[in-house]
Q: What sequence folds into this?
């Protein structure tokens, strides 16, 4: 069977937005073909689980329509505590082929699902520096029924599911393309979406730690609803910096700050876990992506609370954006496109 050679569409399906992106290869490097976003109904994706495949397919068609695209290959990103497990494990040194034979039996002790209900993949991270004959392996397990639901929804939307990836790898791909890792020992890629936060640590440019938290920017909206007795719609507007009649900016800012503190605390706990379990070294820098990155004062307060430099992710740092696409408007929301761009970098020959 011959593989199609169309550049794939990176499809980041979150609980709040769908983000899509496609990249073209040129002699000068990558060029953005399109990037589009569409807000989703709040109940359509719950902890990575699709509640209505037909409605999701319609939303995917709509986000592609915005970009003027009807079909093509798609690389889909997934994450979520109830559907995807990512865990670093230790194994005796062996080849990828040998590990491929034994990984299912080894994985069973680390996965809280029936082994027959999941698809398993892995990536060899390298030899353990402190244990001769041992290596670190990143184990990924995703529920088969969840994968099937995403593939079916994407197929119903007129796309061909090419690769199913996880957000952690997509963020690493985006970083590898756009950033120079030389001299940067520990860089944390922190992606704060609506319903989850992905925390990945790169050591000398290599992924060594990944952790997902179920807390995301929906917590800001929930706190605003509770503290100010307003609707979710008004809470979302306040979160984006809009004004709401009868609500003082000071009260809104106080509520948002309280919610942000809880998110920062969760990120801090992940950093501390990294230090205790992986490397006794501080995080040197945070690259912040996701919708929360666009919230007023969120990056600045994160830097203050965590005591580390925080930089907004720029997935287009080394990607040309043609003038016809409106570079200024795309760069305004660039941190939200980090996962979609990382997915769009995948190709059919890549290990999936």
A:
């Amino acid at each position: 069977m011959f593989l199609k050679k169309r550049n794939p569409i990176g499809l980041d399906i979150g609980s709040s937005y769908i983000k899509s992106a496609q990249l073209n290869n040129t002699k000068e490097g990558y060029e953005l073909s399109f990037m589009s976003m569409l807000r989703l109904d709040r109940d359509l994706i719950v902890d990575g689980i699709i509640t209505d495949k037909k409605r999701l397919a319609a939303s995917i068609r709509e986000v592609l329509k915005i970009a003027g695209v009807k079909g093509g290959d798609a690389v889909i990103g997934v994450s979520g505590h109830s559907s995807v497990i990512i865990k670093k494990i230790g194994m005796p040194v062996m080849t990828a082929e040998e590990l491929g034979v034994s990984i299912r039996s080894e994985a069973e002790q680390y996965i809280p699902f029936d082994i027959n209900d999941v698809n398993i993949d892995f990536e060899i991270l390298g030899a353990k520096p402190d244990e001769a004959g041992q290596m670190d392996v990143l184990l990924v397990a995703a529920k088969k029924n969840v994968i099937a639901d995403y593939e079916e929804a994407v197929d119903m939307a007129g796309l061909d599911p090419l690769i199913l990836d996880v957000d952690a790898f997509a963020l690493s791909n985006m970083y590898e393309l756009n950033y120079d890792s030389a001299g940067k020992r520990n860089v944390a890629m922190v992606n704060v979406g609506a319903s989850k936060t992905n925390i990945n640590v790169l050591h000398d440019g290599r992924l060594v730690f990944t952790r997902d938290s179920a807390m995301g920017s929906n917590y800001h909206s929930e706190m605003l609803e509770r503290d100010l007795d307003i609707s979710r719609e008004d809470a979302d507007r306040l979160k984006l910096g809009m004004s709401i009649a009868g609500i003082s900016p000071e009260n809104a800012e106080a509520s948002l700050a309280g919610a942000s503190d809880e998110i920062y605390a969760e990120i801090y706990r992940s950093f501390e876990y990294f230090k205790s379990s992986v490397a006794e070294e501080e995080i040197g820098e945070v690259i912040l992506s996701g919708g929360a990155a666009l919230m007023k004062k969120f990056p600045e307060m994160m830097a203050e609370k965590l005591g580390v430099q925080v930089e907004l992710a720029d997935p287009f740092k080394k990607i040309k954006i043609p003038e016809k696409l409106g570079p200024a408007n795309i760069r305004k929301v660039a941190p939200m496109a980090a996962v979609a761009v990382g997915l769009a970098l995948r190709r059919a020959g890549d290990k999936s």
Q: What stands out?
A: The first strand starts at residue 9 and ends at 13. The chain has a mean pLDDT of 90. The chain has ten helices and 15 strands. The domain at 181-313 is CATH 3.30.420.40 (Nucleotidyltransferase; domain 5).
